[in-house]
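Researcher: Please predict.
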Amino acid sequence: MLKEAENVIIDAIADTMDQYGVTHSIGRLYGVMYLSDSPMTLDEMSDKLGLSKPRMSTAVHSLIDIHMIQKVWRKGERKDLYEAEKDFFRSFISFFCMKWEREISVNLEAITKANEKLAELMTSEAVPDVIRDKAQKNVHQLEESIQYYNWLKKLVHTFKSKEIFAMLEL
C-alpha cells in the first residue's frame, strides 16, 4: 500500500515536471529521490528505476543543472551521493528564475542587435519610405517588449529576494 501511494506521488511529480520541459523519466527520478530518506548513489537510482547507469548519470546532471538535486558528501562513502531539493518553494524559485533570466538575456541581446540595424535603416537616405516606416514600427514594438523584460527582471528579483512571500503573506 505504501509503495502504491509513493508511486502516485512519483507519477504526479513526473507529470508536473513534464509540463515544464523536464522529461517524464527525469521527473520520475526526482520523485524517487524526493521520497528517499537518504542520499542515493547512481547504482541505487538505477536499481529503483530500472534504467542504465549512464542514463541515470545524464538524468542526474540534468537535475543538478536546474537545481533540483545536489551532490552531497558522507564520511566513508566512496561513491557519489545525490540528494533531492525537498523545498518546493526553493525549487520553484531556482527553476523559474533561471528560465526567466535566460529569456531576458537572449531577448534583450536580440533587441539591442535589431535596434542597431533598424536605426541604420531609419537614417539611411537610400532606404524606401515603406521600409523606413516598418523599421520605425518595429522599434516601437521592441520598446514595448523592453518594458516587459524590465518587469520580468523585477519579478525575478522579488522571487530571489523572497519579497514575493511577504507580498503573498506566506
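Model: DSSP finds seven helices and two strands in the chain.
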